[in-house]
Amino acid sequence: MTPAIQQHSASELFAHALRFENRADPYPVYEQLLRQPVVRMADGSWLATGHREIGLLLRDPRISADRLNPQLQPVRKSLLMEDPPRHDQLRQAVARHFVPRIMGMRDHIDALVTGLLDAHTTERPGQLDVVGDLAYPLPVTVICELLGVPREDERLFGALARRLTRGLDPVDTQSEKEIRELQETRAELAEYLEGLIARHRADGGGDLLAGLMNDQAPDGPMDAIDLRVTLGLLLIAGHETTVNLIANGTLALLRHPDLLTRLRNDPGLATPLVEEVLRHDPPVQMSGRSTLADIDIAGTTVPKGSRIRLLLAAGNRDPRRFADPSRFLPDRADNAHLGFGGGIHYCIGATLARAEAQIALTVLARRLVSPRLVADPPPYRENAILRGPEQLPVAFERLLPDPRGK
């Protein structure tokens, strides 16, 4: 039996994990929190860390995805924070137009990765920022193409999205200045999206935005507000998590040179390798829910109306579910990680994110000669929930041209 942790110690540990100085490696703190898979915090909220418990909660209809303060003025929410039946209506509309468009994109993604690296190809020793030169521009370009964002607007959109992701972190970790700037950024993004929608109404087109605008669902197409909120979600969620997935995968490869060699010789390793990145160092560390009824779980009762954080990254290293959970093992069998969440809110872009990461890591392994990390750990972003490197400088002896002649 592992000793239980008390409310105050759990709150202190969780606060410690959120501190920026622990951003590079919060996992030792998560290991301590795993001693009690569900625990009440000092502020009355709850924290779930166990793999089994998080999985059950993600699939429990008595759990609500709406984490907004009920005292706030009602606002239109994205499908990420909606419950059935409204969640199902929005998700089905997105799936009808998003999923068909991402099928068959692997060759195009490969060409984008190749083009991004071609700009840095050299026979001499050099350095590459994997975040700024590849992991960030790749998914931004892909999601902007899918949604019909003009190429000249990609930089503007990217800057807005980067600022907005800070708003996903707990409010008590943000300064008043950051909160004020987030409100201004949200207004700026809303204005941009309204303009984008207006241009599409005038010009039409065959992209995802046009599909959502003309959706023939029984309830009719989305109204202007739902369209803007959904578009904002897809634009931000459609690339921010993938940036971290590619960066964290590169970190894992360079920390395990044997795996880099294996991937160079066997591109098929990319599939289980990305799944292990999603388990071992997931781009989304946690999610939030609220309870619609009393829920008995892990020997305790979480009362109706409680806020509960699901610490996905801790569940992914739960020794009750995974043998030797701290080791990075792409050959791990039955890798049922929580990297994309679970239940009805399972990440709708998981297929696209997997493809982008698999291709990016495979091409890096094929073309980088003797790569090494310039700094380990690298500098990290401020974000605690969407956790990943701010920069990932990698030195190399050569960056080979594409051997396939593309």
Kindly report the spatial arrangement of strands forming the biggest sheet. Answer: 1-2-8-5-3
Question: Low-confidence spans: pLDDT under 50, at least 5 residues?
Answer: 69-74
Shape label: globular
The CATH architecture is Orthogonal Bundle
* CATH domain class: Mainly Alpha
Question: Structural class given helices, strands, pairing?
Answer: alpha+beta
General description of the model:
By secondary structure, the protein is α+β, with helices and mostly antiparallel strands. It has one domain: Cytochrome P450 (Cytochrome p450). Helix content is 48%, strand content 9%. The protein contains 15 helices and 12 strands. Strands 1-2-8-5-3 form a 5-stranded mixed sheet, with helices on one face. The termini are far apart. About 1% of the residues have low confidence.
